[in-house]
Amino acid sequence: MIKRFAAIVIPVFFLFNHLSAQTRQEQSGWFFFMNTIKFNEKWGLHADVQVRSHDNWDGVRSVLLRPGLTYYIKPNQNATLGYLYTPTIPQDGATLTEHRIWEQYIISHKAFTGGLSHRFRLEQRFIEKAGDERVFAQRLRYFFRHIQPLKSGENGFVKGPFAALQNEVFANIHNQKNTNNHFFDQNRAYIAAGYRFSKKLDAEAGYMNVFAKGATANTVNNVVQVALYTRF
């Protein structure tokens, strides 16, 4: 099981190490909090908060607040409509704000002795730029996340250590001139170790490699992320 998991992870990180040798390097820290609440069998609330630092952990660069309303199609499928507010705080100059409307679909299934989820998200982005200019763009994102328990249980995975592997690809599908002038936007590859305290709480820490395609230069951000997941 561990060998199969490593066989997936290692090629991904060799690929991004090769890309990073050709681009500018950054190091930052991200904190991620995800909360889901089910009101009943069909409806629920999504809410996540992220805080990201500047390069070399030099102060807060951005904060993301992302609420959404979720409809549960089946036990393993759901769709969410949401809004995002994110101010970006430059180290010099005025704060720039982005608003987004987003729609997503998630499907989950078993993989190995753990669980694999796939997320498809469409974003309508209203981006503030310097000089009070506002531009509009749309972006499509595909994300998968695999949770692999490191200790088996008879009643499913309800408590104990786990490994997490995820990757997300971003594509600019409308008004590329308002972003980076490219269809490809970025890729985020992530590996982490975590602990499930109960069915309601997970905590994890890991490394994320963010490769971002720029209009004139590319960037690889080496991110240390700490994350909390709650479910009610």
UniProtKB/TrEMBL annotation:
Q: Which domain of life is it from?
A: Bacteria
Instruction: Supply the alphabetized keyword list.
Output: Signal
- What residue stretch is flagged as signal peptide? 1-21
Q: What is this protein called?
A: DUF2490 domain-containing protein
**Lineage, uppermost ranks:** Bacteria, Pseudomonadati, Bacteroidota, Chitinophagia, Chitinophagales
